[in-house]
Amino acid sequence: MTTSALDPFEDALPTDFGQQVQQTAISAARRAGAIQMHHFRNRTVSCSRLLHDIKIETDRKCENAIIAAIRERFPEHAILSEEIGALEGAGDYTWVVDPLDGTVNFWHGLPFFCTSIACYRSAGQEAGGVDSCDRRLGQPVVGVIFLPFSRELFIGGAGRGAFLNGRTIRVSSSQGAADTVVTVSFGKTPESMQRMTRRLAGLLPQVRKARCLGAVAAELAYVAGGFLGGLVYEGIKLWDFAAGKIILEEAGGFLEAVETEPDQWRVAAGAPGVRETLKGIV
Predict the structure, then answer these.
(1) Beta strand 139-147 pairing with 209-211
(2) Per-residue confidence at 3, pLDDT binned at 50, 70, 90?
(3) 212 CB-near residues (< 8 Å, 6+ apart)
(4) Which backbone phi and psi does 107 adopt, to 5 degrees?
(5) For the CA atoms of 204, 240, 39, 23, what is the dihedral angle to 10 degrees?
(6) What is the pLDDT of residues 58-98, one digit of tens each?
(7) End-to-end distance of the chain based on CA atoms, in angstroms?
(8) Which pairs count as long-range contacts for 127-136, CB under 8 Å and 24+ apart, including other chains?
């Protein structure tokens, strides 16, 4: 197998460590993707229903596979994952994992879901002047987002660019929001739904179309690829956007995250041309 599809910037990585992180993230994402496709549209999978949300056993199976892949190569690294929470580690590196983003889509048979895996290095004392999101995550190393149904593998490495199936990607070059499609989420609480409904009323006249796709990590990857202009999400977690942040910023986009409640984030992200529009909305 050539390295072009899986390792588009392997030669640019300064150390073997960087290559190992990237390959581990890719391998873990592919393992999770295989599990997802095995269970997709299979209603024998057990499910617990929450208000405006769903938890299924596939989430945990994917998480176990990802953690095993990381621990095989980097047993000392910390891991923060949606289902199991925080696993402490030694050293400066933390993996931030969403094993199955878009669970409601997955459960209902809608083929827009993904696995999101990021690795960050602790920012240390020098990060005192940066925003709380960068302080919490640290310095980006690698982000990987894999959509198994469409077989789309997005990779971003700090200072090395962003790629989709081995091809360089960039955000939309549109100079304004009027030519773009922007996605939104209404959150999971009545209050967030009311806020997003008000924002949507202000957004609709300014963009070509607004959509609600239900998988923020995949949407961030699509923004990085130039397929979407931007997004506004409310009430999400670090693992929802940790990998997408790396990929998007390497593709020339922006991501602004504000912690509205403990461990609850509002994110506005997109191409430079939509920045002012989204700032005005949120």
Answers:
(1) unpaired
(2) very low
(3) 183, 184, 185, 186
(4) -65, -35
(5) 120
(6) 999 999 999 999 999 999 999 999 888 999 998 899 999 99
(7) 46
(8) 131/257, 132/259, 133/245, 133/257, 133/258, 133/259, 133/265, 136/238
The CB-side HSE value for 182 (13 A sphere, CA atoms) comes to 30
Summarize pLDDT for 10-66 with one digit per residue, the tens: 444 445 787 889 999 999 999 999 999 999 998 766 555 554 455 678 999 999 999
Structural domains present in the chain: 11-168 (3.30.540.10), 177-281 (3.40.190.80)
* Rounded Cα–Cα distance for residues 238 and 71 (Å): 21
Say what the alpha-carbon torsion angle 229, 215, 234, 174 is, to the nearest 10 degrees: 0
Q: Which residues pair with 147 in a beta bridge?
A: 152
Q: Are 23 and 5 in contact (CB under 8 A)?
A: no
Composition of the chain by helix, strand, coil, percent to 5: 40, 30, 30
Query: Which residue in the block uniquely carries the two structure tokens 């091809």?
Result: 167
Pairwise CA distance, residues 260 & 135, whole Å: 16
3-state secondary structure of 173: coil
Quick check: pTM over 0.85? Answer: yes
The whole-angstrom separation of Cα 186 and Cα 257 is 16
Helix axes 216-224, 238-250, angle to 10 degrees: 0
Residue 14 DSSP code: S
Give residues with Cβ within 8 angstroms of 33, minimum separation 6: 115, 146, 147, 148
